[in-house]
């Protein structure tokens, strides 16, 4: 029996892939080791969204090999898809498996247990070199690279992800992968392929199982959730899927992780306003408040279109969380563009921001541009955006004082476990509730104070 361990990096989508892989390996009789050092094979599931994500993965690979030179590493995920040759040169890497071939990893492990000749393979792999894992020297290249462009043939595998913020209280279910857009800064379409959706019946079944297991809040995630169902035949709309979930499952609170602004339609907002079971939370990537930069980014909306979406939400859901991703220092961004972004955000009721410093991703349109912004300027603009985001978030917390919030208790963290319980509201506010309560329980709380980024309060009658 092979023992394995999965070293996870990256976003919830990548973690969902890792969870699906773990399920597949366990189903095939492999055993999950307690730690990387106790495993025969370690799968390193990488991210490549920024240059620092790449650096983290390389660092982890080097450390894993140094700690245990006999461990065999299978490197997979987005970085593996983007730069397989680069990763294959790192010490201890036996296989580099792109996202295109990720579902085949369990077969690789089984093959590793019972070696067979290369000529007997019928799995469509495109090996650069043909080294059986079983016969691989314990250290040093060459590694075998399995990569291709067959995303569209893949069945989208799904397994709920537990962990991260909210510990094990709020599972995330990935229902969509890939993206058909080509934003100039983004490497995701190159490493995850075209948009693919989990069939609605499967989504319903998975949610029913989670609900029966007493999970109160479930998060739906995807790379581009608004594109959900457009690849299916017959075509399914994301909004239609949400209606089915409300009708056919007992999920008590459903949260949508992120959705592109142009997919936030009047009908979708009305649906959110009609059911308390849908978390009052919209995360809509903005990226820039300057039309000039939005055009250069190949984003398909302009600031006024985005602003209208925010108004739609605020008109119907005055207390909803509205969050955005923003990129500081896209190539060609000047001080006027940056000021336009700051002014746009200042004038809108955002409740939090995720600010990213622009990072050049090989293969993207933006990487080939000649007008890159100096690093120090990018960092300063990112600081200014983050400071603004913190001010907006603090103002939103203040606006919720004295309201009654229905919150879900989470597992305790740090020192707060003594006499306070962390919890999360529908509108994505984190609270510390006076008293000790088990996780995964609904409470009504009246916030009366703030502590850092938390609201504090006690259970109301
Ligand atoms: S919509 Fe744009 S930013 Fe989002 S995954 Fe697709 S290409 Fe990347």
Describe the structure concisely.
By secondary structure, the protein is α/β, with parallel strands linked by helices. The protein folds into three domains: 3-151, Methylthiotransferase, N-terminal domain (Rossmann fold), CATH 3.40.50.12160; 153-399, tm_1862 like domain (pyruvate-formate lyase- activating enzyme, Alpha-Beta Horseshoe); 405-459, OB fold (Dihydrolipoamide Acetyltransferase, E2P) (Beta Barrel).
Mean pLDDT: 88
CATH architecture of the largest domain: Alpha-Beta Horseshoe
Summarize the biggest pleated sheet.
Answer: 6 strands, parallel
| Number of separate structural domains | 3
Strand order of the largest sheet: 2-1-3-4-5-6
Radius of gyration: 23 Å
Shape: globular
Folded structure, characterized:
This protein has a 6-stranded parallel sheet, sandwiched between helices. A 5-stranded mixed barrel has the order 14-15-16-18-17. Helices cover 32% and strands 21% of the residues. Strand 9, helix 8 and strand 10 form a beta-alpha-beta unit. The longest helix is centred in the last third of the chain and has 25 residues, at 375-399. The chain has 3 domains: 3-151, Rossmann fold; 153-399, tm_1862 like domain (pyruvate-formate lyase- activating enzyme); 405-459, OB fold (Dihydrolipoamide Acetyltransferase, E2P) (Beta Barrel). By secondary structure, the protein is of the alpha/beta class. It has helices spanning 12-27, 51-67, 78-82, 84-88, 105-113, 188-192, 200-212, 238-248, 266-274, 291-296, 303-316, 335-346, 375-399, and strands spanning 3-8, 31-32, 41-46, 72-77, 93-98, 144-146, 172-177, 196-197, 217-222, 253-256, 281-283, 321-328, 352-357, 405-409, 420-425, 430-434, 442-451, 454-459. The site of iron/sulfur cluster has 10 residues, from helix 6.
